[in-house]
Write a structure and sequence with these properties.
Rossmann fold, globular, alpha/beta, five-stranded parallel sheet, binds magnesium ion
Length: about 130
């Protein structure tokens, strides 16, 4: 499985990369530092999952999510955000996000959310 991590914080990218590489089913992790690069990568490449930060320069995570979905791309996207407000989460889900993770998180939470997202996708296609 190939995963894309999108976050403007290099520390956060490194943390997420490390956690993801510890998950057995994930064999490739790519990194992007803003929404614009993320949209290019997602629409060009074959990712099985995207972890998308919300607040980023150039293009925010929600803008990137909308651009990807607007292009008809159905790559599973999990929003990673410090914004715990329900309105924002509902906004993201309405815009086509598959799941969300609230920062700060533990590695266990990441693993759980990824597994839950993949399971729900499997259930949909079964
Ligand atoms: Mg950020």
């Amino acid at each position: 499985m190939k995963v894309l991590v999108v976050d403007d914080s290099i520390a956060m990218r490194k943390i997420l990369e490390k956690v993801l590489k510890g998950i057995e089913s994930i064999d490739e992790v790519e990194l992007a530092e803003d929404g614009k690069i993320a949209v290019e990568k997602i629409t060009a490449g074959a990712f099985d999952l995207v972890l998308m930060d919300w607040n980023m320069p150039n293009m925010t995570g929600i803008e990137a999510l909308r651009a990807v979905r607007g292009a008809g791309n159905k790559t599973p996207i999990v929003m990673v955000t410090t914004e715990a407000e329900k309105t924002r989460i509902i906004d993201a889900i309405k815009s086509g996000a598959n799941n969300y993770i609230i920062k700060p998180f533990t590695p266990d939470v990441i693993t759980e959310k990824i597994q839950a997202t993949l399971d729900s996708l499997k259930a949909k296609t079964a």
